[in-house]
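The records we work with from here on pair a chain with its fold. These numbers are not coordinates but entries in a learned vocabulary of local backbone shapes. To see the layout at work, look at the sequence and tokens printed below.
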Amino acid sequence: MRTLVIVDAANVVGSVPDGWWRDRRGAAERLRDRLVDVAAAGVPGHPGPVELVLVVEGAARGVESVPQVRAESAPGSGDDRIVELVSERPAGQPCVVVTADRELRRRVEAYGAECMGPRAVQPPERT
């Protein structure tokens, strides 16, 4: 069973001050496109391929899925949708939530999810 990796788009996009606030949907689409490689390679401790879900909310709603990354538009709170996805996954399926949000981490860990920070899905910094 492939690991389910759920990415908190708002939190990951917001972790890099690159002007994302001027075009939240565009920033979420750029993140989605970068996540294609993550879906194939996996995240630390969970080699790929993984099942990757990008949860968007607010002005980023409506981001389309691509074959390797499923985009989920939260009808309300992105955090609430992430918790639903974690709680609804098949029994025994490993799950990683990518976020730096402490309260969201607490909520999903109660359902057995592992949490990683945004760096787990961001390309390495160039020197």
Observations:
- The chain has a mean pLDDT of 92.
